[in-house]
TrEMBL record:
<dbReference type="Pfam" id="PF07729">
    <property type="entry name" value="FCD"/>
</dbReference>
<feature type="domain" description="HTH gntR-type">
    <location>
        <begin position="5"/>
        <end position="73"/>
    </location>
</feature>
<keyword id="KW-0238">DNA-binding</keyword>
<dbReference type="InterPro" id="IPR011711">
    <property type="entry name" value="GntR_C"/>
</dbReference>
<dbReference type="Pfam" id="PF00392">
    <property type="entry name" value="GntR"/>
</dbReference>
<keyword id="KW-0804">Transcription</keyword>
<keyword id="KW-0805">Transcription regulation</keyword>
<protein>
    <submittedName>
        <fullName>FCD domain-containing protein</fullName>
    </submittedName>
</protein>
<dbReference type="InterPro" id="IPR008920">
    <property type="entry name" value="TF_FadR/GntR_C"/>
</dbReference>
<dbReference type="InterPro" id="IPR036390">
    <property type="entry name" value="WH_DNA-bd_sf"/>
</dbReference>
<dbReference type="InterPro" id="IPR036388">
    <property type="entry name" value="WH-like_DNA-bd_sf"/>
</dbReference>
<dbReference type="InterPro" id="IPR000524">
    <property type="entry name" value="Tscrpt_reg_HTH_GntR"/>
</dbReference>
Length: 232
């Protein structure tokens, strides 16, 4: 597995498995980075990236001067999001506004080019997203969400727009991960329903509605994160 996926991702998956199995218990301090990296067979840099991902998802919490601990409760009950990592570059509201503009346009353009196989793949990712949320597999839930948006972007024939999308992918990804710790089950179900409406609009080759549904989906995600975006 480590040879097929990025090492930090594989490490994050391993640690999440330890949490879900109870090997790492709620409230328990994780081993030092040196010890943990050695036990997982990864570099400390890869481990730090894995820990950062799991902290963003609400599975871990770092306390300055004390260390990193397994979160005490299911992420949606913690009511705390990780800090916005890109604050030195862009306010998070700016990223959501960019997503609304960029991904809305991508959805409209892709509605004219995506094939039936793409629609089926979008349905599979949405089902996977829902199933893994119920299982508490937050990494797989987010992976499916990221893949959903990537499939739509892959259908856009405006290569400059796609290149722009890819150039800011890390920031866009962070806005998809960061709200997870405060996402209630009802909001996740609403998000999944929004995915299904996006698929329906794409299948209908309705560019205007595909744009609208995607923009509405991102707007609702921003609201979940406590970000108010003007739509006029």
């Amino acid at each position: 597995m480590l040879s097929r996926v990025p090492v930090p991702h594989a490490a994050a998956r391993k640690i999440q498995g330890m949490i879900l199995s109870g090997e790492l218990r709620s409230g328990e301090k994780v081993p030092s980075q040196r010890e943990f990296a050695q036990s997982l067979g990864v570099s400390r840099a890869s481990l730090r990236e894995a820990l950062l991902t799991l902290e963003t998802l609400g599975l871990l919490k770092t306390e300055p001067g004390r260390g990193t601990f397994v979160s005490q409760a299911r992420p949606s009950a913690s009511r705390n999001m990780a800090r916005w990592r890109f604050a030195d570059s862009y306010p998070v509201a700016d990223v959501y506004e960019t997503r609304i503009m960029l991904e809305g346009r991508i959805a409209g353009l892709s509605s004219q080019t995506l094939a039936e196989a793409d629609f089926q793949a979008l349905e599979i990712e949405t089902d996977t997203m829902e199933r893994n949320w119920e299982r508490g597999d937050l990494l797989s839930n987010v992976e499916a969400d990221l893949e959903f948006h990537s499939i739509i972007a892959s259908g856009c024939r405006n290569r400059m727009i796609v290149d722009l999308y890819q150039s800011v992918r890390d920031l866009l990804t962070e806005t998809q991960m960061q709200p997870i710790p405060i996402t209630e089950p009802a909001r996740m179900q609403a998000s999944i329903a929004e995915h299904r409406r996006i698929i329906k609009a794409l299948r209908a080759r309705d560019a205007a509605n595909a744009t609208h549904e995607m923009q509405n989906h991102i707007l609702n995600t921003a609201r979940c994160a406590g970000i108010s975006i003007a739509t006029d």
